[in-house]
Amino acid sequence: MFWYFYNEAKTRIKTELPPFFKKLRNLALKLGVSCAAVISANAVMSLSLNAMLITALSYVVAGCAFVAGTAQFAQKENSDGNT
Questions:
Q1: How many other C-beta atoms lie within 10 A of the C-beta of residue 65?
Q2: Dihedrals phi, psi of 82, to nearest 5 degrees
Q3: Beta carbons of 71 and 17 less than 8 angstroms apart
């Protein structure tokens, strides 16, 4: 059972994405990396940003990781209507 899901995931990751999901994945990656950069800059440079802001940025990073990972599993339909 595990190998079925593993092989399915492997083939879905390698297939071409629909344009909407490409844009969604790229947007999520850019936003997530930007938020992670702010969190890192706050830690390294001691910017003393509000703790609530850092917590919100942490949630945004987690959400972006989920959205980007989920968008990666979308498949483009073939001309016959099958995925």
A1: 14
A2: -95, 155
A3: yes
Q: Can you give the pLDDT of all 83 residues of the chain as single tens digits?
A: 899 999 988 998 888 999 999 999 999 999 999 999 999 999 999 999 999 999 999 999 999 999 999 999 988 877 666 65
Distance CA 56, CA 58 (A): 5
Those residues whose C-beta lies under 8 Å from the C-beta of residue 1, and which sit 6 or more positions away, are none
Instruction: Write down the pTM of the prediction.
Output: 0.82
Burial class, 36, CB count within 10 angstroms (exposed 0-12 / middle 13-18 / buried 19+)? middle
Give the count of alpha carbons within 13 A of 67, CB side only: 19
CB 73 within 8 A of CB 13: yes
Give the domain ranges of the chain: 2-72
